[in-house]
Amino acid sequence: MINIGMWENNITPPLGCDIPGQLYIRKSSGIKDELFAKSIVLDNGDNILAIIAIDLLCISEEDVKKIRERVEFYTKIPKSHIMISATHTHTGAPISNIYGSSRDEAYMDYMIRKAADSAIVAYNNRKPSKIGYGVGYEDSIAFNRRFFMKDGTLRTNPGIMNPEIDKPAGPIDPEVSMLRIDDEHGNPKGIILNYACHLDVVGGTEYSADYPGELSRILKRLFGQDFICIFLTGTCGNINHVDATGKLTIKPGHYKLMGRTLAGEVIKSWEKIAALDNQILLNAKNSIITVNLRKPKEDEILSAMKLLAMESESKSSESKPDSSSCEDFFVRELINAAENNPESKQVEVQVIRIGDITITGLPGEVFVEFGLDIKNRSPFKNNMVSTLTNGSNGYIAIREAFDQGGYETKLSTYTNLEPETGYKMVDTAIEIMKAFFK
């Protein structure tokens, strides 16, 4: 029988810190609901794995390294067997300097230790357990946010019931993938749940784990307060909660509707999930790949500099341009990308095997097409794909998106990897999966 431990630590920051995730600065003014770092450790006697999910917008490679080092020091779990994922909540902690928000180093030192400690305590709490895998289906709360317009252009988030919309530019992934964890007597212990939709539902200046937080609260009411829901955000770089047709009305508290809807899928599927065999193979492998960085063309740089010069002149003549506009922001980002980016970067792709289940970790805001491709090509029957895992590299878009345009492919210091990046990640993940059979 497999031994499993689970634990969660509260990581809610103090008020007054920056909340990253928008193109403008937000200072936290309250707590809508608490933020957590949640961990599971699985041990079959031959191999041991740890998965840590943290209520953050993203997590840097350097912070991943620090968490892994602390966990390995106290548990001897190999760093390569530790997966660390950010849920991508847009009402989270001050974790980076992305888009002008400020990283709080004192808080981050605390968060890193608390996140690692959740895995260390989970390790110390390992007990005989049973696991099973199931898949629900939910297509009413997630939508592709990129649209072809009637004039032939493409827009991200073109507005609800915009008459100029032609059709969505891509699919969604409606799978609600679940790994059920029970104690040896069959009592519910926890769940790993994977679903693809942006965590940008709450908004405002109060900390919140967004819809996975509500999902967790509902499941705790059902299964007990010790039940732990580890949410791994699926490939949702081009997926969010906005129904452009207007059929699903977004009201205050919409994140609660989403969390409860997913909880409903868990409840529907729970009793149908059969326990896996006692002899469960565990494995993990990560591969470092090198990808090129995009650089702006010379004419793009010149054009950007002219726009900034015009802005400076307009300010001196007492006009009031909107300097916080999206256009102005990305003009500055393009220049920064030209000045500060190296030629290439190394990124990590990780795959964890739990019996006939794989969990692939990709370090970016990955388009849904890549997650679907991994599931379709995988030699394993059951697959989860987790985004913003073991690092953060901006949006990872499909090739066509770079020609089509839209918010996700705008060059910046955050989003700057070559168009082939996602395809390299997928190929690497599939190679790892195939190696598990050798």
Largest sheet: 8 strands, mixed
Order of strands across the main sheet: 5-4-3-1-6-11-12-14
Number of helices: 9
Tally of individual domains: 2
Rg on CA atoms, Å: 22 Å
Distance between the termini: 24 Å
Beta-strand segment tally: 21
| Content of β-strand | 25-35%
SS class: alpha/beta
What form results from the Cα inertia axes?
A: globular
Residue ranges: pLDDT <50 for 5 or more in a row?
316-324
Helix content: 25-40%
- The run of helices and strands is EEEEHEHEEEEEEEEHEEHEHHEEEHEEHH
Mean pLDDT, nearest integer? 93
General description of the model:
An 8-stranded mixed sheet has the order 5-4-3-1-6-11-12-14, with helices on both faces. Strands 16-17-18-20 form a 4-stranded mixed sheet, covered by helices on one side. A 3-stranded antiparallel sheet has the order 9-8-10, with no helix packed on it. α1 (61-75) runs parallel beside α2 and α7 (368-377) runs parallel beside α9 (421-435). It contains 9 helices and 21 strands. Mean pLDDT is 93; it is low at 316-324. The protein folds into 2 domains: 2-282 and 350-390, no CATH class; 296-340. The protein has 438 residues and is an alpha/beta fold. The two termini are 24 Å apart.
Chart the SSEs and their pairings.
Layout lengths: L1 E9 L19 E2 L4 E8 L4 E7 L6 H15 L6 E5 L18 H20 L2 E11 L5 E2 L1 E4 L4 E3 L8 E4 L6 E9 L4 E8 L10 E2 L3 H13 L4 E6 L5 E2 L13 H17 L11 E11 L5 H19 L9 H15 L3 E11 L2 E5 L3 E2 L1 H10 L4 E5 L8 E2 L2 H6 L16 H15 L3
Parallel strand pairs: 2-13, 4-5, 12-14, 18-20, 19-21
Antiparallel strand pairs: 1-3, 1-6, 3-4, 6-11, 7-15, 8-9, 8-10, 11-12, 16-17, 17-18
